[in-house]
Design brief:
The chain has 220 residues and is mainly alpha-helical. The protein has two domains: 14-98, RNA polymerase sigma factor, region 2, helix turn helix motif (Rna Polymerase Sigma Factor, Chain: A); 128-209, Winged helix-like DNA-binding domain superfamily/Winged helix DNA-binding domain (Arc Repressor Mutant, subunit A, Orthogonal Bundle), CATH 1.10.10. It is 61% helix and 0% strand. The chain is built from nine helices and no strands. It has helices at residues 14-23, 27-49, 52-68, 79-98, 134-146, 150-161, 166-173, 177-204, 209-212.
């Protein structure tokens, strides 16, 4: 004879407790949510917009929309994941307004430099840590991330920089899990290849290697 399992209520996370208090009109609870996540949201927005002032606007708009639509939050995911989705949409809208001739979307297929399966990328040689301090490496990495296509960059930032899980990233961007995994793989390999080329140029003492190939053509 089967036994009826008791319905054990799962403990409510501290984040969800704050959300529920905010839904009941506790502004201090929402202010605590802002303090928890404003820096994270700002970093995400800055990576997408690549502009500090736009990123600050995105943070304000994202929290304002979250506050105004708090009752619509169904608590099926983390509040932070829901907030990130709002912030990403606001950041993409910023890009659309800035470049009306170019549609920026996470839903459309992103064309890459190599649309086939990425080839293996050689390890860095020499080891960049031997030639650069941590601050320089962070700056190089930030600038290299900014060079990724928007769809890849956003997935990479959420997954590898902000530490969201694959499922949370998919939820925040309203993408399928396979789409997130595919874009993340391509982003990582593109990033590694770009960094590899950068350090090879630096190692050869030639910072303009990309432009040198065509420099002699104009004399022919």
């Amino acid at each position: 004879m089967s036994t009826i399992q008791p319905n054990i209520e799962q403990p409510v996370s501290e984040e969800m407790q704050l959300v529920r208090r905010a839904k009941r009109g506790d502004d201090h609870a929402f202010e605590e949510l802002v303090r928890r996540y404003d820096r994270n949201v700002f970093r995400i927005a800055q990576h997408i917009t690549q502009n500090r002032e736009d990123a600050e606007d995105v943070v304000q708009e994202a929290f304002l929309k979250a506050y105004s639509n708090l009752e619509k939050f169904q608590e099926q995911s983390k509040f932070y994941t829901w907030l990130v989705r709002i912030a990403v949409n606001e950041a993409l809208m910023k890009l659309r307004r800035r470049k009306p001739e170019r549609t920026v979307s996470l839903d459309e297929e992103v064309k890459t430099e190599d649309d086939s399966l990425p080839r293996e990328v050689a390890d860095w040689s020499p080891n960049p840590e031997q030639n650069y301090n941590q601050a320089e490496l962070r700056d190089i990495l930030t600038r290299t991330i900014q060079g990724l296509p928007p769809g890849f960059r956003t997935v990479f930032v959420l997954r590898d920089v902000e530490g969201l899980s694959t499922e949370e990233t998919a939820d925040a961007l309203e993408l399928s899990i396979p789409a997130v995994k595919s874009r993340l793989l391509r982003a990582r390999l593109q990033l590694r290849e770009r960094l590899n080329r950068f350090f090879q140029k630096k190692g050869n003492g030639n910072g303009n290697a990309d432009g040198d190939e065509s420099s002699g053509d104009g004399n022919q």
